[in-house]
Structure formats: C-alpha cells, structure tokens
Amino acid sequence: MSYALHWLLNPEYKSMRVLTWNCRRATRQSPVWEYLQEWSPDVALLQEVASLPSHFESEYSIRFERAISKRGTLQRFGSALLVKGCIVDKVTLLSDYDWVNDELMRFAGNLFANEIQLRSGLRLLVICLYSPAWPVDSKRLADIETNSVRLSLNPDVWVADLLWSALKSMDLQDTNEAVRGGDFDLSETFDAWRGGPRGNREYLDRMTNLGLTECLRAFHGVLTPTFRNPRVGEV
Length: 235
Description:
By secondary structure, the chain is α+β, with helices and mostly antiparallel strands. It has one domain: Deoxyribonuclease I, Chain A (4-Layer Sandwich), CATH 3.60.10. Helices cover 19% and strands 29% of the residues. The chain has five helices and ten strands, in the order ββαββββαββαβαβα. The strands form two sheets. A six-stranded mixed β-sheet has the order 6-7-8-9-1-10. β8 (123-130), α3 and β9 (178-183) form a beta-alpha-beta unit. α2 (98-106) packs across α3 (159-169).
C-alpha cells in the first residue's frame, strides 16, 4: 500500500514508478529480485528483506534497517529503501505525544523516513512502513491515554497508528511531493472477517482526511486488494 501527496495528480510525474512489496524474507538468491529488476522501479519500499543482490548497489542508493521482534530484539530481516538517484538525508518522525515518540524510536527499523532525489531531479519525502502482525505491547501503554491515537474500532495501538500520529503532527501542505508506503498490515476487506470491523476502513479514512491519496485505488478507480493468503491463495 502506498500513499502520495500532490505528485500523483501532476502529469509531469506519471512516468515515475513506485513499488511496495513484502518480500517474505527474501535472500539474495530469491527469484523476487528478477521481477524487481524487470519492473525497474524508481523507488522501491521493501519489507521482510533478508539480503539483497550485490549488483543492486550499483543500480540503486539503498537504506536498509532491521525490523524489531515482538520481544524487542532485532529480526534477521528488515526493510529496504531503493532509490534510482540519491538518498539525501534521514528525516526524524515526531508526534505531538511523547509516548508515541518513544515507540517511534523503538520501531525505528520498521518505520523510517528519508528525503531523496531521483535522477530526474525530483525531490521527495519517502516514508517506509513495516507494521507487523502484532500490536505495540499494551504493558508499556498501561498507564497512558491512547484514545487520541488508536482506532476507535480497535483496542490496540499498531505501528501504523504511530505513523498516522506522526503525519498528523506534520504540516503536510508544506511537505511538497511525498510518498508513504510499505506493509500497513491492513485492508478494508479484513473488516469483513469474523468478529466484525476492526478499524481497517477507519484507518484508510484517517489517511484520506490528512490529504493523502491511496495510489492504487486512485490509479484503478476501484478497491484493488494486494494481499494473498500464502497458505490457501485467497485474496
């Protein structure tokens, strides 16, 4: 899933390719890299990457950060930002809430931001997200009022909620061109699962209310699920 501000609506940028993909712990020998090389994106936001082919270093500027586990240790895989151009600078994400900032630091390998410049000269703010399938530890938040950040339909705080809180604290109208993408671990189709809605559509509406555009939906004009259950093959 990816969100953009401004550039999607500008015909000048229609040739820019942005790819987001959970690579399921791909190593440098994985066939996933053959697909990526064929598609040749200008910007790739990749999750669950164990290792990258060495020749990518001559084709892309790369930032790689290891994800954190539920126990707080570093995973054997991480997230990678690949840019045809240069990664200009790291950008610190900050919320209006100190407890969110503490969690942003804890999940620094799952959620990070950079200013980049493509070979065309276009400069972008890119935010990479890998929201795991488990929430922020509720024990750390036991004495904290989280209602202003968490979804009203979900009792937990998720890493994607931390991103929303940081974005809400930014003046997005002064951000110029920006892309936020990755594995949000949500889809409005999940709300149809047993147990009723758990805030997936609510989260998407939150992002829209910040002035962001969901790229795939805007491009196709309809809901376009990208999640496929690896065990049974269902979308």
